[in-house]
Amino acid sequence: MPTPFHLAIQVRDVAEAREFYGTKMGFSEGRSDTCWVDYDMFGHQLVVHLNPNLGPSGKVQNYCNPVDDHAVPVPHFGVVLEIPQWKQLAERVRTFVDEFIIEPYVRFEGQAGEQHTMFFEDPSGNALEFKAFANIETELFAK
């Protein structure tokens, strides 16, 4: 098993983050306190931390870089999945995400590193990318 990563992000409201990551995304909750919550994000540890400076309507501001004719938000994070798992997640996400940053599609089609990808934001404006490769071991870092 690969070593899991730990990522801590800021959110504007812990209850709102619980609804998004726990209920809608379906990530199981681990330890928590009034200002933070741990989630199991496909075997990795995602922790949401309250940042009261974001305020009730505040969002993280992202910058975009061009990739494959799309504006990719920076920063962003997510997990690399198997294609069937990615397709299931894409179907689930379509039930609660009103607007994708980048709709689910195949990037670099027919090229080295071909991948399924999608981008969307959590309620605090954190950009998420989930991607999948036909063969993760050989294609993840293909040039």
Automatic annotation (TrEMBL):
Signal peptide positions (record): none
Domain VOC: 3-133
CDD domains in UniProt: VOC_like (cd08357)
Alphabetized SUPFAM superfamilies for the sequence: Glyoxalase/Bleomycin resistance protein/Dihydroxybiphenyl dioxygenase
Superkingdom per UniProt: Bacteria
InterPro entries reported for this sequence: Glyas_Bleomycin-R_OHBP_Dase, Glyas_Fos-R_dOase_dom, VOC_core
Coiled-coil region: none
Listed name of the protein: VOC family protein
Organism: Roseiconus lacunae
